[in-house]
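Aim 2 progress update. The chain analyzed this quarter is reproduced below.
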Amino acid sequence: MLKISGLTKQYKGQNAPAVSGLDLEVRPGEIMAFLGPNGAGKSTTIKCITGILPYDTGSIEICGYNLKSDPIQAKMNIGFVPDNHATYENLTAIDYINFICNIYRVPVEERKERIDELAEMMSLTQAMNKPINSFSHGMKQKVSVIAALVHKPKLWILDEPMTGLDPKSAHVLKELMRKHCDEGNSVFFSSHVLEVVEKLCDRLAIIKGGELIEVMSMDALRDKKSDLSLEEFFLSVTDNNYESEHSYTEE
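Predicted structure tokens:
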């Protein structure tokens, strides 16, 4: 579904790459969490995958399409929820979603049913004819979720998706993520909410200083570190101070 090989991205004027030689694969039917401390390279990686940022070396394939040589087909298979709910805020929610449908060539006869279903699930039905610039942060996040799913993408990418959502909407979003994967698709998401990651994801990848340092399934994590929570394990591999203060012994 998603295959990243040797991805390297260095910003102009920086001494070290933001992402260095990253290799990662997201399989069909799985939810993969992408974890790391602030500044680790999570958002840079996601922006490279979605085509927002160019990258220096390496390759990215989405559903078999190379992002550089076949960018349109690659992006047609992506649904993206950014961390800043970027939308055209002068449009109404329904006009914005229809605009997204036009971009992804969603047939007109299928749009209404899809939009109505998603709007109802996200408790946004009554606000769809209102301008987005009148919405709260959480409502804008809901619009971003609908826009990312309305074209039924194979790969759903989310950057801190729970930010600003009320408990009911966060619960619905988690159900949507699992349903999306149960249908053979994939979800790749970053989050600082480790309780959600621990309960929801199938595998996790941890990045630190632009380099991938851990990739494992949640089952393997539970077997390997049965005495540690995900939070404790995450801190043990990303925080040197925590590691020195909290030692543990592997079985």
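The chain has two domains: 1-77+155-251, 84-152. Residues 242-251 have pLDDT under 50 and may be disordered. These observations will guide the mutagenesis experiments scheduled for the next reporting period.
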